[in-house]
Design brief:
- There is one protein chain.
- This protein is an alpha/beta fold.
- 32% of the residues lie in helices and 27% in strands.
- The chain has an 8-stranded mixed beta sheet, with helices on both faces.
- Strand 12 and strand 13 form a beta hairpin.
- The longest helix is centred in the last third of the chain and has 17 residues.
- It starts with a strand and ends with a helix.
């Protein structure tokens, strides 16, 4: 069931949520967090769908703040989707007109699940300093996606410069399967890694984060090479005894090659937004490995004048 409240107020929305909660027998009592999505009309459908899919693992109250005509008179149109309509959680879509779009924190604060963590997500172009954003100040975790920016690497670099514990970016989350596979490949004796190369399509910031992570962890020089994609296509580690290579040309299946062993075919599909989001919702503490890799990337870009 979906309830529409045109030209409403936060008080009326809160009252409607309480009524919905009583009608389904508890509702928000089972919510583990509030996920606040800051988006626009063009991106909101895919973002809410991704949040709904992630909600099967993390029942949440999803509050989508959809900014509309900034020159209009202040107004709120609300859409409330009860549990069962949007997975195990509930969703509140708020279309904010006029200056309300710039003061979304005052609109969303009364709608946060009491005593539950808050996660803010910008599925499109996010703020340069998420922790200083009005909505970001309400959140323990702040999720952005530099890939959506006109200049992804510049966007990521600017955000790294403003990093605060709790910040993360989906360009990092997309690397988890690659990092896990590399760690598994290096479980067997391979000697010291002497250099590395990361190959991906141009303007793909996940590849630059991968190169930064390898350089930071292995303390070696890492080359960033270009390919036609899709996304990240190859990571090669050169060791004392030979190369370890993960190569993926179709975005779905990779070949793992190790010196002295037959090649292996492994599943390595590109991650959907809901998969990446669900992973980020599993942890509400600071991601120290991301912080280290991001700061290392920031230092290398500063040193190169990038």
């Amino acid at each position: 069931m979906t309830l529409y409240l045109p030209r409403t107020t936060t008080a009326q929305i809160t009252e409607a949520l309480m009524a919905e909660r009583h009608s389904v027998g508890g509702g928000a009592m089972n919510m583990v967090l509030t996920l606040v999505i800051v988006t626009d009309e063009a991106d909101h459908y895919d973002a809410v769908r991704a949040a709904t899919e992630a909600g099967h693992e993390h029942p949440s109250r999803v509050v989508a703040l959809i900014r509309r005509d900034p020159g209009a008179e202040p107004a709120i149109d609300a859409e409330i989707r009860r549990p069962g309509t949007s997975g195990p959680g509930e969703a509140v879509l708020l279309r904010l007109y006029g200056p309300l779009g710039q003061h979304a924190d005052s609109v969303v604060t009364p709608l946060l699940v009491p005593d539950a963590p808050v996660v803010a997500w910008w599925p499109g172009v996010g703020p340069v300093d998420p922790a200083d954003d009005p909505v970001g100040r309400l959140a323990q975790r702040r999720i952005t996606d530099a890939l959506r920016a006109p200049d992804p690497l510049r966007d990521l670099a600017d955000r790294v410069a403003n990093y605060r514990p709790g910040d993360t970016d989906l360009t990092w989350t997309r690397l988890t399967p690659w990092r896990s596979l590399l760690a598994s490949a290096m479980d067997q004796p391979c000697g010291w890694v002497t250099s590395a190369r990361v190959t991906a399509e141009d303007h793909y910031p996940s590849a630059d984060l991968m190169a930064s992570w390898l350089s930071d962890r292995l303390e070696v020089s890492v080359e960033r090479a270009s390919s036609h994609g899709p996304g990240l296509t190859e990571v090669r580690l050169t060791t004392e005894h030979g190369d370890i290579t993960i190569s993926r040309v179709d975005g779905r299946v990779a070949t793992l090659s190790r010196f002295g062993q037959p090649d292996q075919t492994v599943a390595l599909a590109r991650r959907s937004a809901s998969q990446a989001l669900a992973e980020e919702l599993r942890r509400l503490d600071a991601d120290e490995i991301y912080e280290s890799a991001a700061r290392h990337l920031g230092a290398s870009l500063t040193g190169s004048g990038g």
